[in-house]
Structures are given as structure tokens and as C-alpha cells.
Write a structure and sequence with these properties.
Elements lengths: L24 E9 L2 E8 L4 E5 L5 E14 L2 E6 L3 E4 L5 E4 L4 E8 L6
Antiparallel strand pairs: 1-2, 2-8, 3-7, 4-5, 4-6, 4-7, 4-8
């Protein structure tokens, strides 16, 4: 995983900044701050991020292909251009029944006690 942010004030095409890698999930960090982060992620067919739980809401947008998102064992199939919000503290799995790319945005503010 890349830890540095992308260059500011420079135009790029999000779907082109990462490639599909056989048998892999590739994560590129676009912005990483203490208050949240934005990452571009590619999944090869058959790959998954399973059983994850975050203390924060996470916005997922599919930017290429189709994804299966399970939130507390409820499955949603997302096509290119579709989005979903994974609620904080929900067990979730992101699966690639076929390869796809997505943006993942986590906002950490607003959860202060």
C-alpha cells in the first residue's frame, strides 16, 4: 500500500491510477489525514476483503466493473457508478466475483464522544 498522497493541483483520471494485478487487491492512497482518507482499490476476480469492522462510516463507489458488498450478511451488488455507505461498526466483506475498481472514503470526524 502506498503511504504518500497524490500530488495536489495535478489532474489525473482515477480509474487509470491503478492496474489490475492477478490474484491481488491493490490499494493506492489518494489522501490520508487524521480525519479520514480516500483510497482507490482494484480487486482481481475471486479476491475479497473479509470480515472487516470500522469504527467509522465508509463510502464505497464502484468506478469500474461490478462488486459484491456484504454488510452484516446482507449482500448488495454494485455496478460501475453505483455507491453504498458501510455504516460504522458493521461487519462487512467486499468481494470481486469479477474484477473491479472502487473508491473508498472514510470520514473520521463527527465520532468524538
Amino acid at each position: 500500500m502506498e503511504n504518500s498522497e497524490f500530488e495536489k493541483s495535478k489532474v489525473f483520471i482515477i480509474v487509470e491510477i491503478l492496474e489490475y494485478v492477478p490474484n491481488s487487491v491493490v490499494i493506492k492512497t489518494i489522501i490520508r489525514k487524521t480525519t479520514g482518507n480516500v483510497s482507490a482499490v482494484s480487486f482481481d476476480s475471486g479476491e475479497a476483503l473479509t470480515g472487516r469492522v470500522s469504527p467509522y462510516d465508509t463510502f464505497i463507489q464502484v468506478i469500474d466493473g461490478k462488486a459484491e458488498i456484504l454488510i452484516d450478511d446482507v449482500s448488495s451488488l454494485l455496478d460501475t457508478g453505483q455507491s453504498i455507505i458501510i455504516p460504522a461498526h458493521s461487519r462487512n466483506t467486499i468481494k470481486a466475483n469479477e474484477r473491479f475498481k472502487m473508491l473508498s472514503t472514510t470520514i473520521k470526524s463527527g465520532y468524538e464522544e
